[in-house]
């Protein structure tokens, strides 16, 4: 809390259930556009994201590195 805390407009976004689900599926994104002078509100731009598919069979070694990165909380060594 406080002026340097987490209670800032960027972290206080209320989403409907369907929008939250779509955000969790990486189907949409919000881009910060402008913060008010008193820093109490934030104007955001909405973006639909393209549907991407990932096949373990097509990228088996990248999948192994992805699982390793997730399990060790490290940066992924390769870009998928």
Structure description:
This protein has 80 residues and is of the alpha+beta class. It folds into two domains: 1-49, no CATH class; 51-80, no CATH class. The protein has helices spanning 17-24, 60-72, and strands spanning 28-35, 42-48. The protein has a two-stranded antiparallel sheet. Strand 1 and strand 2 (42-48) form a beta hairpin. The radius of gyration is 17 Å and the shape is elongated. InterPro entries: HNH_nuc. This is HNH nuclease domain-containing protein.
Short summary of the structure?
It comes from Aspergillus ochraceoroseus IBT 24754. The chain is built from 2 helices and 2 strands; from the N terminus they run αββα. The chain has 80 residues and is of the alpha+beta class.
Strand order of the largest sheet: 1-2
The first-to-last residue Cα distance is 37 Å
**Mean pLDDT, rounded to whole units?**
77
Q: Encode the helix/strand succession as letters.
A: HEEH
| Count of discrete alpha- or pi-helical segments spanning 4 or more residues | 2
Q: By helix and strand content, what is the structural category?
A: alpha+beta
User: Looking at the structure, what is the overall shape?
Assistant: elongated
Topology:
Elements: H1 17-24, E1 28-35, E2 42-48, H2 60-72
Antiparallel strand pairs: 1-2
Question: What descriptors fit this protein?
Answer:
single chain, 80 residues, alpha+beta, 2 domains, two-stranded antiparallel ribbon, 2 strands, HNH_nuc, HNH nuclease domain-containing protein
